[in-house]
Amino acid sequence: MTDTRIDPPVTADERTMLRAWLDWHRETLAVKCEGLTEEQLRLRSVPPSSMSLLGLVRHMADVERSWFRRRLNGEDLDGIYYSDDDPDGEFDNVDTASAEEAFATWREEIKHARAAEAACADLDVIARTPTRDGRHNSLRWIMCHMIEEYARHNGHADLLRERIDGVTGE
Q1: Phi, psi of 115 (to 5 degrees)
Q2: pTM exceeds 0.85 for this model
Q3: Fold held by 19-165
Q4: CA-to-CA distance for 170 and 8, rounded, in angstroms?
Q5: CB-neighbour burial class of residue 75 (10 A; exposed 0-12, middle 13-18, buried 19+)
Q6: Are 30 and 104 in contact (CB under 8 A)?
Q7: Cα-based distances in Å from 94 to 18, 42, 89, 136
Q8: Distance (Å, rounded) from C-alpha 109 to C-alpha 160?
Q9: CA nearest to 130, candidates 119, 140, 138, 118
Q10: pLDDT digits over 54-77, tens only?
Q11: What are the extents of the domains in the chain?
């Protein structure tokens, strides 16, 4: 696998550090998927889970959209791959899904997320749309949560990749 990640700086201001770690984790997911066929990207973990690498990419596209566009910016957008009627659609509906489309959509949502974050004056900016439990999270919280979300799913991706072809790594 070609590792295109840029190591986060060891010293930096808080916002630079959060951006760097989030980008590092975004690229880690891409590295875990590199060089695989669509069929390999669709391979499920273990029953009853419907998790696959392609499902993780689709899920993270929706997560990027949800936190940066829907919550932070207050945009009225539906989920990309899931709905109220199909809450796990990003994972369940990969059998005929296009990997090319999923990766393009994910990259586009990252682009929107970066723009939304950059438009904020500082990390104390409060999201316009509350969470389901009524909280209005700060940009700082969103950035930390996104790092956590990617880190958790990159662990899943590592196990999925190892199952597919034995490749491991950080």
Answers
A1: -65, -40
A2: yes
A3: Four Helix Bundle (Hemerythrin (Met), subunit A) (1.20.120)
A4: 14
A5: middle
A6: no
A7: 31, 6, 8, 33
A8: 23
A9: 138
A10: 999 999 999 999 999 999 999 999
A11: 19-165
